[in-house]
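Appendix B. One record, verbatim.
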Amino acid sequence: MAIKTFKPVTHSLRHTRIVDFVELTESKPLKKLTSGKTKTGGRNNRGRQTVAGRGGGHKRRLRDIDFFRSAKDGVPARVHSIEYDPNRSSFIAQIWYKDGTKAYILAPHGLEIGKEVMSGPQAEPRLGNCLPLSAIPQGLAVHAVELQPGKGGQIARSAGAQCIVAGRDGDWINVQLPSGEVRKFHPQCRASIGQLSNLDNMNQNFGKAGRRRWLGLKPKNRGVSKNPVDHPHGGGNDRGTEGGTPMDRHGNIAKGPKTRNPRKPSNAMIVRSRRGQATTTVA
């Protein structure tokens, strides 16, 4: 997948860099595997804004992605198409099982139409297959890793993301996450082989504000340009921050201090933090 550039006939096209989708299949999504998506505009069930900068955008339909890959263990499936999903940064693959069932999975980089994929402990550690971590050789790149067995893939699901199986540590499997953190996983947690597709997603330049509005992303003002009632940085006669400490609009410190609870139970599963430091369990 390459980056597409444009002839600079307008100011916005001069800097526009978007992904070229020539490798995707020109077909409509499978209707029975899609559903309507209700927009919230960043509001909760009480109508209050909980996420800033959300709203508008093009109408979308949700794709029913199979993050479990356990219902058809041992049944081979053929990749029918590689499709675009407006709800995620990576591409998805439509697979047809040998018994006639159809499903969507996350498409790893290099997966082609006509290739065969399989899930289950007996599957080979090949691109697109889904296996327990105990059956995956050390050093392989994986995605959609389960945090708990049977919970479905949760780790490394965005474009270009991958985890590395670092090896066995007693009864656990050490996996290096995209952040650099090394974490212990249960051997029966499943993961899919390969790095996720759309590697050039991070190299895009939308070129104009309107393209972000199509994605449902609204413009955000700087805190120092607001009134004191709207942001801790607001007001005053200059651009300084309140007390010299950057904060968000709720008054929470935005830079510097760690926000993870040192007594969180899952800290015991972290072998090395994303800052490269060995972790110690707080009693």
